[in-house]
Write a structure and sequence with these properties.
heterodimer; A: 93 residues; mainly alpha; 3 helices; B: 487 residues; alpha/beta; Amidase signature (AS) enzymes; 15 helices; 36% helix; 13% strand; globular
Chain lengths: 93, 487
Amino acid sequence: MKHDEINALAHLARINIGDDLLDNITDNINNILGLVDQLQQADTDNVEPMSHPLDAIQRLRADEVTEGNQREQLQAVAPATEAGLFLVPQVIE
Amino acid sequence: MHHYTIAELMTGLRNKDFSSVELTQHYLDRIKALDCQFNSYITVSGDQALASAQQADDILTTGSSNDLCGIPIAHKDLFCTQGTLTTCGSKMLGNFVPPYNATIVENLANAGAVSLGKTNMDEFAMGSSNESSFYGASKNPWNLDCVPGGSSGGSAAAVAAQLAVATTGSDTGGSIRQPASFCGLTGLKPTYGRVSRWGMVAYASSLDQAGPIARTAEDAAIMLNAMASFDAKDSTSVDIVKPDYKTTLNDSIKGLRIGVPEEFFQDGLNNEVATLVNAALAEYEKMGATLHPISLPHTHLAIPAYYVIAPAEASANLSRFDGVRYGYRCKDPKDLMDLYKRSREEGFGNEVKRRILVGAYALSAGYYDAYYRKAQQVRRLIKQDFVDAFTQVDVIAGPVAPNPAFGIGEKSNDPVSMYLEDIYTLPTNLAGLCGISIPCGLTTDNKPVGLQLTGNYFEEARLLNAAHQFQQQTDHHTKTASINNGK
């Protein structure tokens, strides 16, 4: 991968990668991708992908309200709030 | 007092040799005097610990108390602890005080355990050496120039330095078993779904599992009894009968069939580690177990499969850290994109950034099939190797890591060389099985080495039994690091 591809990924992941880190991270990631390319050797014809060790399915529950409103307690850790809303820089012009 | 195991402390408390308050104060004093050498704690909760200890003493006088009542433990800083800072070893959560307890924290508190504080760890559980912690590396009490392992490095160092009698850890690719091995301790990764993940900050949701790090299998059984539960709040929690893990510790292991995978004893395994592990297997034979050569042919694919799946899941899980609802927020964000990108640039360390980027790549359009889907197919092949083996054997044995504890700084500049150290522990997580690491001796330069036993789904009782029987016949687990008391 080249710098511009790494930067494109960084944009997807919403992380700035500073210029001082870019070389190092590009090398590291190329090495890691070299490592994982060994996967291509595996014969996986007709093998079902496995996302859960026991192939479990999502448990469902009755559609009933069971949680109370705990907004104040849960918002106490937020960087910036007002009137129960999370504050962020202006999104809509 | 700090030389006692949980089992011994239980007797001491009930005989009134000491109170939980005295015991807790003793540990708090030790932490204050000695942890500067190991950096095993990020947060020490002195006042709360003493308050819990007092409550425990009150319960103990009633004559009716749980095993863990009054016992001083500590939690890996990955588990949400209500009212107590929970950092996950990261700057991103350097100011995060959870409004709730993780289920395992709640379970252990309900059992009367006293929490001394939160232990150091690799950032967001990504690492095998504790070196990526924003709060500094933790040192191995057996050799201060060496890593304690990771990611539960602080949890292992604390128990090895006798700054807690047992701790909680998490294991996604070996993060309980490997530090336990490096620090001469007993560490158990339960079957996926055995222990609730609610309130445990997620790294790779299909691989993560919480478990105990302790000095003996008996202590690990006592901890697991409290930690394990079906939890409706964790949709991957399995509703299966939970045995009392203590009751089967003393079962005979005559006739136990131990599978020895040839792939775990090939090139790359340190000679001293191989010698000590083989000696442990010979010991099991003396106890009446039988050894059976087996093959886990897809072992070599465990590292590439893991280093696609875990980063992919991590990139999704860590997207919640965006500076909006909790955690670190950059100064003066210009707009929303700047808020996200700079908060995450400044809040995350380099290993976390690497894994998020690799994960994003593996999941991105055009690469998903070649990487993530392929890795999931390989994962099924790895699981099938174990399923086949378990039709012939009861447990699978081998080394925990190819080498004993390496030097601080030795591998931190070469992520891939660090990843290769995980070869024997990763398959267990990919397959979702249970695994335990128990001490099996010291190298010539006094570094602990662990024997790994892997068990079939939900057979923690069998693993703990096999481990306990080994610890009845050998004394490796009784060896402790000599701590410089500075006196």
